[in-house]
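Teaching soon. Got one?

===
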Amino acid sequence: MTSQHSADYAALLLRTASGVAFLAHGLLKVFVFTIPGTVGFFESLGLPGFLAYLTIIAEIGGGLALIAGVYTRAVALALVPILLGATYVHSGNGWLFSNEGGGWEFPAFWAVALLANALLGSGAYAVKLPNVRGVATPA
């Protein structure tokens, strides 16, 4: 197996794992915490409630795009601010995500993983779409 071939499968694993995790987090906000509950949580942090809607849409839509390998580089970069926000929200809870309220280790690591995926591109088994002006072509 060539190193490029290995990298393509590594990118596939990274993007699908991140995509599934984003999809799960977005659906958790809809079906478990509920949309009004998520809005209330965002507002309790001092954030405008509409950001909860944008976060849910980004997590579900971004998760699906990553799973499919659609514009992986752009989608991965677009999702980084969500994870930096989650890192900030959890920063007062300490390092470990197993701490009460969840620490900042997991969202920080996930942000770095997305940056790696943005560098790697889509990898194997990705949906190939034509380049759109201003949007990176999937690799």
The chain is about 65% helix and 0% strand. The helical segments are 3-31, 35-44, 50-68, 72-90, 105-120. Residues 27 and 33 are 9 Å apart (CA to CA). The mean pLDDT is 92.
